[in-house]
Amino acid sequence: MIVVTHEMGFAREVGDTVVFMDGGVVVEGGDPKVVLTSPQHERTRSFSVQGSLRDAQR
Fold it and tell me: CA 55, 49, 47 angle in degrees (round to 5)?
């Protein structure tokens, strides 16, 4: 099943894999606990600045 969400806490809890896209291009993906706690791409890190990843790290 594919679920599209901006709720990173939800994605972390239920997803087997997360994918971040920027401009329709996949920029990062993998295990949610790894990607959401240690993002490598600028677009993924920008979610941290916006506060979305802080919720996912709880």
Answer: 65
**If we measure between CA atoms, which residue out of 38, 51, 46, 45 comes closest to residue 9?**
51
Structural domain spans, the chain: 8-56
One DSSP character per residue, 9-54 reads HHHHHH-S-EEEEETTEEEEEE-HHHHHHS--SHHHHHHHHHTHHH
| Predicted pLDDT of residue 17 | 94
Q: What is the pTM of this model?
A: 0.70
Mean pLDDT, range 29-33, rounded to an integer: 92
